[in-house]
Amino acid sequence: MKGNVFKFLFAFLVVGLVLAPIAKNFAQDAPQAPTPEAAAPAAAAPAAPAAAAPAAGGAFSRHADPIVLKGEEIPEFAGATEATIRVFASHGGKFIPIPCQMDERNQWGEFVVTKGQRVVPDEDKGAFDDNDEVVFLTRDLGDKADKAQVPGGPKKVYEVEVTDPLTSTKGYAYVANYAGSAPANATADYLKYVEQGDGLAIAENYELGFLKVTSGLDYNHLVVSKAAGGDGVSHFDKLKVRVMQNLKRGFTLGIPTRLDRTEKNFLVKVYGYKDGQVRVLRVMKVNLQLIWKLPAPGATVNSVFYPEWIEWPVPINLPFKPSWAFYNIELDVSHDYAFKATD
Length: 343
What we know:
Layout: H1 3-19, E1 66-70, E2 85-91, E3 94-97, E4 101-103, E5 133-137, E6 156-163, E7 170-177, E8 191-194, E9 200-203, E10 206-209, E11 221-224, E12 236-247, E13 257-262, E14 266-275, E15 280-288, E16 299-305, E17 310-311, E18 326-337
Antiparallel strand pairs: 1-5, 2-3, 2-7, 4-5, 6-7, 8-9, 9-10, 10-11, 12-13, 12-18, 14-15, 15-16, 16-17
C-alpha cells in the first residue's frame, strides 16, 4: 500500500468535507442503538490474520482486485441472504468454496453495519436486493467449468468471467444461491477489525488504526507488514490536515475573511462496522466545525478496507459552484512520523 494512495484518498475526503457546509445533507442520521463501549487500547496490536494461499491451479494473474456484484446485475438472486449465498472456484476439476461476503446497503446508499457504537439498519431485513453486493477477490478465481456441477444442489448459479486487461487471461467464479442449507463456506479470513480506540483494521499487508485521535477522522497507527516489505512497526505520529478558505467579500460585508481549519475541527461519529472475510466496512458521520463548535451539515462516509488497499469515497451534492462563494480553497494533507535514531 503506497503512501501516495493514502494521501490522495484523504485529500479527496477532506476536500469533500470542506465543501459540505454549503452542500445539501445527502444522508440521514442513523438511529442509535446502544452497545457496549469499545475496549480500551491494548498494549500491542493483535496479530494480523494469517495469509491464505491462493488455491492451486488458478491461471489468473491479478491478485488484489475485488469483484463486486450488485443485486441489479443478478436479479435472479433477489431475496437471498448471506447464509444462502456461496461462491466457488474450479481447480483441477473440483469446485472449492472461496472467501466471499454479502454486504447490504440501505435506501440512502449507506452500508448496513451491525456492530459498534451505532448500527445502520436495512429495510428488507437481510434480503438481497438491487443495491446490495456480493464480493470476492481475483486471487481466488479458478478455471472455467460446468456450473451444473456446483455442489450442494443450488437453485441458481451465476458464472462470473473476469478478463485481465493487461494479459487477456481469464478467471472464473461461480456464485450459488441455495433454497435451504448451503455447503460450508471457505474458512480463510483476509482481514479483521478490532474495537480499539475508534477502530483498528488489520490486513495481511498493513494495519491502520484510529487509536488515539483528535476527531475520529485522523488515524495515528499505520504499519506496513513484513509480508509487504515493511518492518511491522508503526513509526506514524499523526495525520495533519490544513484547510485554508478565502471567502468572497460579498459574503463578509466587504471584509477579507480567511477561514482556517485543521483535523481537530472535524466532528466524527463512528456508527459501526462489519468485519467480513474479504473486506471490512466502517461507517461514520463527519461534520466540519464552522464557527466555535457550530457543525456544518455532514456527510456519511463509507470506508472500505481490503487486504491490500482502502477505498474512502465521499459523494458531494452541491447546489451551486464553489467559486460563487470562495476565492480559493487550499488543502494540505501530510503524514508526521516519529522515527528513532536506530530505525
